[in-house]
Amino acid sequence: MWLLSDETDARVAAFAAAEPRPGLDEYRAELDRLGAAADAVRSACTNVVVTGLYAVRTSDFKELMCEAADALRRSLLDQVRASVRESNVAINEAYLAIQTEAAKVSHSVDEVVALKRFIQKSNADMEKLRDAIASNREKDAFLVEYRFAPPEEDFEVGIRAYEWPRKMVDIMKEATTKVNLEHKEFEAQVKKRRKDFGDALEKYQAELAAYDELGADGITRRDQIAAEVTALSEQLKAAQVEAEEINAQEKLFGWAASKYGNVAKMQSTLEPYVTLWTTVSTFYDSYASWMNGPFYKLIPEEVETETNDSFRRLYKLTKLFGTEPARPSPLGVAEEGRNKVSAFQEHLPLIAAICNPGLRDRHWAAMADIVGFEVRRDEVTSLKRLLDQDIGEQLSKITELSDTASREWSIEKALAKMTADWEGLAFELGPWKETGTFILKGGPVDEAQMLLDDHIVKCQAMSASPFAKPFADKLIPWEKKLVRFQEILDQWLKCQGKWLYLEPIFGAEEIMKQIPREGSAFREMDATWRRIMAAVSEQPVMTDVAEFEGLLEDLVACNTSLDVVEKGLNDFLDTKKMAFPRFFFLSNDELLEILSEAKDPLNVQPFVKKCFEAVKELTFETDGEISGMVSVEGEKIPFVDTVNPAATGAVERWLLDVESDIRRTLHKVAGEALEAYAKADRAQWILEWPGQLVLNCSQVYWTREVTDAIRTGGSKGLAAYAEKCSEQLNRIVGLVRGRLTSLERATCGALVVIDVHARDVTADMAYKRVEDVRDFNWESQLRYYWEHHEAPPSGVHAQETIMVRMINAEALYGYEYLGNSGRLVITPLTDRCYRTLMGAIHMNLGGAPAGPAGTG
User: Fold this and answer.
1) Residue 640 shares a structural domain with residue 773
2) Which of 59, 174, 243, 673 would be a feasible disulfide site paired with 689, CB 3.0-4.6 Å?
3) How far apart are CA 323 and CA 334, in angstroms?
4) What is the DSSP letter of 6?
5) Does residue 783 contact residue 804 with C-beta atoms inside 8 Å?
């Protein structure tokens, strides 16, 4: 049954791919096994099998299994056929490649040597190919044995492959003959090339030796000799390359390499002659041009560089040719050339002086006075003609004049560069908000300031120079222009800064109404500013702006006006701050914003917290009246009296009314809370009143009850009251554990801190056996009293108010609203701070505690 399984094809493929690859014996064994399986199927079963009532025909199934076995046999035989075809195709390609390569014609020594090696290697390769052909013939016989007929194409491929060994005998014989002939031809060529190269070297050696005898008389033919020696140098360089190529070809033929070391030696020997004659030729030609050409076209730096280089080279050559073995002829050439260069070097100072690019007509006129004739700068006036007129006798005076011209020229160039630096530099203006005018942008202004700082210093240095006189008519006005422009920029930027600050302030009608004199001055200055900026926007080039008539004076006047306006504004703000001192908590900008928006009190709302620290906002009614306040924590307190900003007018006045109303409200609510304390349950009372007053009123009652306990029971009374304090504290703790709003929880939290301290103080006094209200242990505590006073801080008529006492110091409670804020734990250090600060307040002094939070 394995013949019909799905794994049969996979087993056949695995058989063919096994490593090492199966040979013909393995294929034969597998084919025989499959044939035996088919024979067993045919003989093992009859065509009909009777089973009870049924007769089963097995012939079709037997045929199916036999066909499966035959198909597997054909698959294995096809693998053998495919391997034969693949091998024959590779054999044909290999033989064809050998034939093609062997038939190539060699064009160089490298190619003929490579071809010869290829033919030798091909003999071994063809032996392997013949072995492959023999193996393929065995496989063909194997296929015939099993009567497997390959396709016609495979047969043709095999015939071509099997014919190659016979054909290659003649092909390789012909190729060997051809390559041997080519080899001999190239050997002859190399030998001839080697001989010709040797003859050329002898010729070069003879030419080189001739330069040893070439003396100063050859200077007349200097250009020709320089060309010849340069050509010989190039030939020797080519000879060096030729020698390397010949040695490489000799190596290919297996010959001993020829020695051509004399080529490098000849190059080394020739090099001084090349330098000698090229230097002499170049300098003599330049000398003729310098001496006979127009002198004004000479460039002193180039002349000096070439002259000094020539002298340096010729000086070295005289040393070289003068050493042993001496060579007198080239030595004479070098010495004569050096002497000529040295003689010309004497004229270099004169050339530098009369060819100075800084010389101007005034200098040429002065030079004519010195030498006694006019020095013309034309095509016919040469250096030789000037020397013939003995101009060199006045060299010192001419040099001094040229030096002066150079210094003046440096000033002239610096002045021209400064002028060029300002060309195209213009102000960049930008519109400022909705004002309808412009302001200066920073980029070009910064660049202008850097240029001014640099150029003014340079102008001052140049003005102090004795060589600046010819440019005084340009330099002095230019310096004044720069200095004036710097002053303009300084005044301009100062004016712009103040204008940007004051323009939005005086753009508000409320400010203009309150300080009309300063407002009028600012309007006048603003008109000048707009006129200046409009003119600059039409003509922004800086050098043109610097020449605007009266610009500096206008800017100075504007700054003077702005100083007056700014002083008046500050005086006005100080007046407002004195009227409502809480304005000192604000910056000038914030105060100005409040004043400019005073006609709408709602616009003052964002600044309320800075004036009243614990007040987040005021409560405005629909009619504009202020009816209460809201703390930062969200605690709302209605005022006892409403404040009408419209009735009072000025913002500082109605803010004063708000401040007074806050104090009156807290005073009144404190009295009501104290009255309610005696009637209501304390736990419920805590939740019904503002947090700040809960703390104060609780302290008032604690002071009153402690005093009563001391008077009635002494230390025992204090001990009993301490237990009562603990009970009250426990009730508050229980209250905190329940459901409370955030404000109620904040009130309870702060009260717990106060009550804990109160209980501890009471228990401590009981422990210390305090029996009298005048005992220092009691008088040293911070005590709150509700007493009659003729002038309460709330500004109302004489009535009860909160008094705070500690030792012999006392202070009226100020009713400053503090919101419903938390409290830090009270420690003995806190009590010491209380005593110190109360003493300071009692003496009309002040104090500010400092140190880590929570330590007292």
Assistant:
1) no
2) 673
3) 13
4) T
5) yes
